[in-house]
Amino acid sequence: MIDVMMFLLVFFVLISLNVIPALGLKTHLPSASSSQDLKPQNKAVITIGLNDALQVDGVDTKISELSSRLNLAKKNGEKLNVIVNSDRGVEVQRLVEVMDNLKQNGFESISIATRKP
Questions:
Q1: In terms of domain of life, where is this protein from (predicted)?
Q2: 108: which residues sit within 8 A by CB, 6+ positions away?
């Protein structure tokens, strides 16, 4: 009897893990041999996914709303470090548009997330 209950418990746990979707966009980061770990105090993560998907700290946004959403992330006028997390399949033009928008709105500390090979 206990074996049957244990089987049912494991079955429902495994099923529920696949039913609940993970938060955020799934991306495959490009690799770079000169990657370094960044641990900024005040940061915001911009995720650029396929099919023109764009998120700021896990919240869907449009490129026109990008700077206003990032200004909300600033704390007490501190410098905000922006990390761009882009899928390797995203067109370079889309990445340039996002980075150009950031530069035009006064964000100077911009990093591109990569993974070590």
A1: Bacteria
A2: 79
